[in-house]
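1st attempt posting a full record on here, be nice pls
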Amino acid sequence: MSHKIVLLPGDGIGPEITAPTVELLAAIGVALDYEQHLFGGASIDAHGCALTDETLAACQAADAVLLAAVGGPKWDTTDPSKPRPEQGLLGLRKGLGLFANLRPVRPLEALYDASPLKREVISGTDLLVVRELTGGIYFGAKTRTADDASDLCAYSRVEVERIARVAFLAARGRRGAVASVDKANVLETSRLWREVVSELHAAEFSDVALSHVLVDNAAMQLVSNPADFDVIVTENMFGDILSDEAATLTGSIGMLPSASLGQASQPGLFEPVHGSAPDIAGQGVANPLAMFLSAALMLRHGLGLEGEAAAVESAVDRALANGLRTRDLGGNAGTGEATQAVLSYL
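the predicted structure (as tokens):
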């Protein structure tokens, strides 16, 4: 059976890391039918908006969506009437009902010395950030005048419970511990969050260890004791910030994949955590490994192909263990060289 995949190369280095990812997936031997669409800044240039109705419809009809990168200074603006590439991401998440973002963070021993943290601090770190993706301040009502602006942060019981369930189920397949991150000493939304998470834990997941951590303390613990975390679950904005902070543990944000999931009947969205890196676009030096690992998450969570996903991850691990280093990892391997190295271990 062939799987339908929508490719969204996007902007900057996006097209440069999409092509080798398709090459990698072909080498795996899975039957995939691709449909490619403009997205983000490229779509703004062509169509005047970051996500067209046609592209959204194609994504909704696919088995999975593989996105490379969006954005760049060309489209930066503070004018609320002008389109921004990031609006495409928000629209895609909403249109596909993607409420759970999974970001695994597992620094490889071969790259410990590339991390800004000491080897002994990051040793043994293997954590998963589960971020709520369609609620909170990013999606709340917004107002703007010449002198004032506001962003509403709102959460419902249903929204909190469904993301907490994802985290608890993930923890059961890992080390059995969830850290729920909030700001319950200040925010009413966080007080509801903590209450709902605690009730779900008591009712259905008492076998999983649960701790509540204030977001400022969580940020500190991530860089002082990262190995203490198993699964971190938190709301949209906190998750955005903490998952990028966690990315530094690996030595490069160019190493981290992510998966955005909704109901089982909906296609998932799989993308690297990094941005479009317009400063190196077109030079052939972009690190494709996070895109490769995002494809592995697509194979696992989007298509149910665990063996093929593990093969990709193993090939990346072995290439790095045997000396592969792109520029962001302190070496000089280009995109093509990195691709061939991973293919050789597949």
